[in-house]
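During data preparation, a discrete fold description was generated, and the record follows.
___
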Amino acid sequence: MKLRCGFWIALFALWFLPQRSDSQTAIPVTDSHLFFSPYNWTIPGLGSSPPPSPTEIVTNEPGAYFILRFSKSSQVVLNLDLFGTPPGGGITSLEIQYSIDGTLYPNLTLDNRVPDLTLSTNLSGDPHTLQLWFSSSAYSVNRWARTATLANGTMAPPQSLRIKGITLDSKAELLAATGLRPKRMLFYGDSITEGVKVSPANDALQTYAITCARLLNAEYGIVGNAGQGWTHNTAVSTGVPLFGDAYAFQYDQRPRFPSDKATPAPDYVCVNMGTNDWYYGVPPDDIGVTNAAVHWMQEMRTYFPSSQVFLLIPFGGFVAPALTTAYNQYILAHPADTTLHLVNLGLSGQTGLTGLGKATPQSFDGEHPNGPAHLLLGYQLAVALQTVLGRNDFNGDGKSDLILQNTGTNQVAEWFLNGAKVMNGAFVADIPDNNYLVVGSADFDGDGKPELLYQNRQTGQLALWFINGATHTGGILLSQRPASGYKVVGVGDFNGDGKPDIVFQHETTNQIVFWFMDVATMVGGVALNTVPVAGYHVVGTADFNRDGQNDLLFQNDATGVLVLWYLNGTQHVGGEAVSTAPAAGYRVEAIADFEGDGRPDVVFRNAAGNIALWHLDDARLFQAESLSLRLDPSFRIAGPR
């Protein structure tokens, strides 16, 4: 009896313990269920006859990743071609990092003695999501020359990650990738972009590009090549040619884009290049850098005909005059190109990153940002790009516009601006109920088009109007209603989720409250930790000091004096008065980036309808001008703010 009992216990245990399947199935890299990060993977020999066997997918760019969803498999094995990779790594080591179902595992150094890398053997429950990144690569070894013969006979750089497939259990089912961000973003840069010396080891998973892309709701491709520049590459480099000669290629003789255009076209392209030119010793206004940048801008539209392209001043501020001159020359010659932008984070992007050789709180060597600095730069850059993109662009020309509302009829109109010049305008066809005032605008639903936010002057009820150009396409009442006395004073992202939130101020107590929004649903809220003194009211929001956090602008009711409050999320952390006070009678009525330089501008109006545009650098006025038209006194400027 004891024997029989022991037998059944053992059988029961074997039956219910997780079992590893002895039968396996290999998933080829061409399987459509695999999602590869855009623009930085290539399949050598694809399309040739006969096709190479086995088919391999290759990347030589840290930051590249893939995603696979599956079910009914307890094991995951990565099948690699590690020819040329040294045993145990060494100076030419390649490292990967992966997550399964959200659990992030430590970096793994690849070893050619282990071509089949087991990532898991005991998965349970379904479904599962695998994401794997090429996290780092030696930045002093050539990534350009095709000197390695792959298992299928094709050629690639030895300093590259080469994947033959993924092995799962034989009964595994592949699932479509879910949760992918809808936009596509391509980053070009040097060692900073690929995450060199972030900890101080190299790690592309900590680069600013990932934070920026996530806030812009984009899947991303990172193309960072240490030592690369516009006119000079440093001695320590990956062997990749100058940026203008290499950006359209994955590596030597291997086009990055299989056709004349990037397919699918990236929504956004960011170029962060110039630090190595400075390192080489070129002057800040170097004509060679200017000419190289102009040439690239003229050529890049072949590959990115409709993408929003951002030319960044390097974080350290290097060669800023040369790149600014290049941008101005290009725009002068191509005035119709409204989707190319120059972005400068200014002093907020330069702190601790202006010179190689001395450690700072932001860098281990004074040039390469550390992990926390990368995170902050990613936030700063995302906010700057959102500002440049004109989240209040109603006619689709990439520039911020003004919203007007008639104080008698409630008719809403749009003025289409190019800087301080009113180019055209349109009336919104439908007229809202007389009690509803436009109090702001933003892209609440994430479709790339701004919505109008209304508040009922009697009840406080909020409503969103969905707008396509000047056409009202629908609307919705917000289910929540603010407490009595709270008026909308601004719109912006204050909790860092990339979605616009609503700022209220109480009419009598001056208390400021934030509503965190998901389209038309209030998902949370908090009061500001400081109450402003009587007489000061919020007139708009923007990231004035370019720290990646939206701030509040106040104007004194009696004197017109302007004061900035700097915020960290929804915490008041400092402030100062704007260096210049407006002329008597001028009130702030809108805030946006009207110049397209990544810095917020302030619009004033007086009772006679005269409109002034102030260009601010933090709390300093550096330029003021008048709008080309006066506004009929029966209209008020309703936003953006």
Remarks:
- The CA atoms of residues 81 and 162 lie 5 Å apart.
